[in-house]
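Minutes, project check-in
Item: structure for the 678-residue chain
Input as provided by the requester:
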Amino acid sequence: MEKQWWQDALRVIQYNLQIQDTDRMVPEEIAAKACEAGANAVVINAGGIYAWYRSRIPFHHINEYLPAKGNLLEDLIRCCHALGIKVIGRFDFSKTDDVVYLQHPEWFVKDSEGKPVCYGSGRMGSWSLLMSTCINGGYRNEAFAVKVMEEALDCLEIDGIFYNAPHMEECYCENCRRKYRSLYAKELPENKKDWEPDWQTQCLKDNMKLLYRTVKERRKEVPVILYYGTYREDGTGLPENLDLRYETADMVCTEAQDILSAGKKRLPFSWKPTLNMKLGQYAGEAPRPFGIIHSCPGMDWRHTGLPAAEYEFWLSQIPAANGQLWHSLTGFDAVITDKRLLRVMKKVTRRAALSDSLMQGAVSAARTLLLWNAGVSELGFTQGLMDCHIPFDIMDIWHMDLDRMKTYKTVILPGGFPTDSAVTDILGKYVEAGGSLYAEKTDAAITQALAGLLGIRPEACTGHDISAAYGVLEPEGEALNQALMETKYIPVKGELLYVSAEKEAVKLMTFIPPFAPPDGVGAPPERAGLPVTHTGIPLLLENRVGKGRVLTGFFELSRLMLEIGLEDQKQLFGNCISYLNGEETEFDGALLPEGIFAYPYRAGEKFLVHLVNGVGSRPLKNTVECHHLELAVRGWKEGKVSRVFSALEGAPVSWEENDGWIRIRLESLLVWDIIVME
């Protein structure tokens, strides 16, 4: 099959157009600025809430600010094409005018009391009310959306389609009630928590299947882009099954909003863009996922930009994590008043173009695989892996694959990850074949098969809300003692699993029980002595199985790294993974400072290491330049290395080969660089 344009590396700028800026739009200037910035595709408002062309579809609200003569959108498309820039049309069928509701109330979302849902009703000015449309109603299906897509594909030379806000809102209209009854043979519950787990997913799938088919029947070559889900920061979300998303899309995207306006206590994880891109990587022929980065510090301040240092750090993670960069701007260059964001946007986009050329055919050099079910434990291990500079990839619950698993030296099994017989069987075969497994287990749901894998007896009991307790490394745990030799007690708290080890299993760290209840830890100091200074209760247990080994933590190390983050907790985790990886790792970033993210790749005869600098208190207000950074690489090719250089920032690099390692010293790092070895 002939390669399509969208299968090449893309750098996208989305211009979120405001209708009151219409008269300031000069197509030639917008296209030229996009080209100057290094973009090769743009996303432009096309239809849905507003039609940006002279639509003839009833109820399609035409932008009243469009010029009386000519066709602004067609001119913009033509100017972009003249500069080799593809144009992706943005369509949003999630809302429409109140006057449409008055004529077709059956098209709209109804709350549990049967009332329509109004969006932004408190907006001042001479605006119509916007009403939320139902995903199962006619507006988002054959009665309106299909007709709009057919018209747009016929009259506009758009190269791609992007559906904004396609997901289902909570709705209790008759359309939804009938469909629920048909699917599940029961009434739609009045409490959303009682809905069938796949209800909303099924509704989205049905709607997108219709719109996807409409696009392909009209113009088969036009790709469709849809959002994919990632995670919730409280760990209560469900992982996205990308198989379902690709049934109705050719490319996928997700947002990594850096919402600073929510306050410092609610800052998103510093590695959010990185994790989003890892979750969107998909086996097969699918393009790399798009990472959408909004330029603003929150939609409530969308007319200004993120602090320049924060913005550059946030943007740079997308290409470094092997994603495709997608900028989201409010307006276009001529109306954007914060010129700093434009400067950063252009800088990173141009560097992304160079990165794209280097990354052709690149594959991850990670030797560690994190199993993913979107829980708190997974987020904690992500924190630990990023802080310890341990490269990792992700395998979600929908794609448990033994053959792929065997390509990694170490697999991490998070706490709470489903371990049914199929999963336990895969993990057992992986370890028996020589793999290393790090498992976190704090609940007492233990099958005989899992107990055998972990090296424990099935009888176990849980300890809840443990505090004022410690772990102590045993002599057998000497391999985990790096950088911990000057301390004895490693703080632990939270959930604990008390287990009995089988005789062949080795205790590497044991439990020191609480010295006091929470209300007695501070006073009196005379009673702060430890009542028990040693137990045989394992906190870290090693079990040999076949050619491999299992290292199990029976306490919440992942949560400790996420919520507390003491150096010793992070160091212990890093030591565990280094111990399990042994001599099979190709990258060592242990000497890099925390706050610098590392992403190693193999690219043919080259080895690439992206470094992204986020050192400093967030939100970053200034870039903290780092100096004399040391990292090491080995084993990716035979023969001598001929050259090592800094591809983006041009910083001096020195290197030497020693004991099979290429030890590299980078003199300075500002924000984002790629170290190239060839």
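Outcome recorded: Residues 149 and 215 are 7 Å apart (CA to CA).
No further action items on this chain.
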